[in-house]
Amino acid sequence: MSQSLTAETLQPLMNVTTTTPAPYTGVAMALHWLLAVMIVGSFSVGLYMVDLPFSPQRLKLYNWHKWAGVIILTLSAARLLWRLTHRPPANAPMPAWQARAAHAAHLTLYALFFAVPLMGWAYSSAAGFPVVLFGMLPLPDFVPVSRELADALKPWHGWLAKGLAAVVLLHVAGALKHHFIDRDGLLRRMWPAFTRN
Amino acid sequence: MSSRLLIGLALAAALIGAVVPPAWAQTAPAVLQAAGSEIAFTTRQMGVPVEGKFGKFSAQVMLDPKKPESGSVAFTIDTGSARFGSAELDAEVPKATWLNVPKFPQAGFQSTAIKAAGAGKFEVAGKLTIKGMTQNVVVPVQLAQTGANSTATGSFSIKRLAFKVGDGEWTDTSLLADDVQIRFKLVLTGLAPL
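Output (structure tokens, whole complex):
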């Protein structure tokens, strides 16, 4: 904790000298990029699989998608815990509204990391397909099997996932703007290759 | 032995015969009550148990629980009445790959031998016909009676591939298990006491 505080107090000085901003912890970076890959992958598989005809391929993709969702949920819980117990490095200097927008985007991302898989899990349970992780570990149903409930939940899983995709695009656009337009080194906080320099 | 005694015995036999009818005469057909009755089945897709239920079925049950050997049980299930939690499966299962409802609208069971297997327990051996294919099965049945109702419950498993349910690319049992668990609860009236 004291280390992060030091990094924060040093931040203005570091910007003046245009040195690299303090990075996130290795754990935070690992979780960020692992989840980035898993979320983009699951989203893409999700978009593809829904239009497939009933087939072994569809069955496999649905199950892999659900397993990925459970892993994303678990890693997101670990990530949230890490984030709450480890102060992130200081932000680059930016207009207050931009800092607020970035903060709001982060909050929304975290909320959706949980909401999207939970909604998918609930839909699966309601539709009579309990989630069995890796085909071996049965997970509990937290909603009853119900056609009406399944129909009501199904679109929400898709809407929330598309909402997540939209905020991710905003997040990526913001990071790229900082890197290529503002050139404030903000991206280096989360870019493992730069931390060793 | 005097002739009077013989006549007396004959009369006594005739009387007993009139008062106590033979076992087959006691066995009136039981009536299946739709309310509370259920035939469900569970398949496993990549380890995921998926349950379906048949909404329409009928039964012909002639059984004296005290003399099960003389009884018979027959079932007819409307294959088109299979319902799942998801509309997708409801639409899929009637197709030719699965139950082929247009060609085989009914599945059936006909008992060949019923025997007692302990208190309220019976073993019903018989022939199960699905998609025009017949297999021998033995179904364990537990019978419980309260008032006028007799409730028969039990479960057994069948091999779906023996009936060509899920052929073609679906014969892969690592995706869809061969075993299908069948569970039933049947409420009957008109059955003789246990």
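The radius of gyration of chain B is 22 Å.
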